[in-house]
Design brief:
The protein is mainly alpha-helical. 93% of the residues lie in helices and 0% in strands. The radius of gyration is 12 Å and the shape is rod-shaped.
């Protein structure tokens, strides 16, 4: 349960990081 939460948190963090990275490079 706790491990699943950590995996989901890491996944969301990586996706948000990539999204912000693309935004900064696009503009």
């Amino acid at each position: 349960s706790a491990k699943l939460y950590v995996q989901v948190a890491k996944l969301i963090d990586s996706i948000l990081g990539a999204y912000l990275y693309l935004l900064e490079n696009t503009i």
